[in-house]
Amino acid sequence: MESAPIWFITGCSTGFGGTLALIALRAGHRVIATSRNPSKTPDLISQIESLGGKFLKFDVCSPEIGKLLDEATAIYGRIDILVNNAGYALLGAFETLSEDECRAQMETNFFAPVNIIRHILPAMRKRKSGVIVNISSTAGLEARESRSMYSGSKWALEAVSEALYKEVKPLGIRVIIVQPGAFQTPFASSANTSDRALPDEYEGTPLAQMIAYMKDMAEKGVNLPGDVKKGAQVIFDYVMKTGSAENIEQFLRLPLGKDGSARWEIKLDELRRNLDGTEALWKSTDADP
């Protein structure tokens, strides 16, 4: 990668996107930050532009995504580091979610980053360098009540990322999945929660409790454990192999937050118990010699 790496980051209006853009700019890198509604964040735009960055209006679901990406790439002539950060959560009981809501979730969280990668990857391949960072979630590791489609979109993105990681690693291109736990971002307040009534049969179940908790979080706010600035700094360090990540082995997945690592432990335990508990069955299915 040449000096002064060039970043292209989606979803910079809140959370990790804007913070990561500022960190990269302060490190002397070049950054193209984007959001769907730049008019909502004039102070952030001012900060980014004052540091020499570019801020573009960019709808990741636009039918003209190719044209928009060509225009963005033309600013500096290439994109070295792609960060797919834009997304949102659709929350609610699975059976109450409409087809339109489900498709919209997949369009933003899955098809949009996939399309962006498909457009930017050929140039990275020709240069035999580049980094693709997909911001996922612990929901991409473990699906919990009320988050069926949100987890579905993240699992799909992680599956593509894992296969892509194996395909392009020999070409000098890195793929990183970032799995944040609960961070102090507007995740809950910006989530789309189904307004359809929960069927009576779910009353008192973990699903009903989770929906109530998420609504309460959106309305009152909750002191979540994750610090966005610290998380964004770790992402930057991991991408650049510097600072806190200088001597850390590079893996496909980068978990963030102690609560996120706790979900890993739960998932790993569930998978092991599942495999061990069905051993007699799966061992019986091979063809006879």
TrEMBL record:
The chain crosses the membrane at residues 6-25. Pfam families: adh_short. GO terms for molecular function: oxidoreductase activity. InterPro entries: NAD(P)-bd_dom_sf, SDR_fam, SDR_oxidoreductase. Keywords: Membrane, Oxidoreductase, Transmembrane, Transmembrane helix. Belongs to the short-chain dehydrogenases/reductases (SDR) family. This is Uncharacterized protein. It comes from Coleophoma crateriformis. The lineage of its organism: Eukaryota, Fungi, Dikarya, Ascomycota, Pezizomycotina.
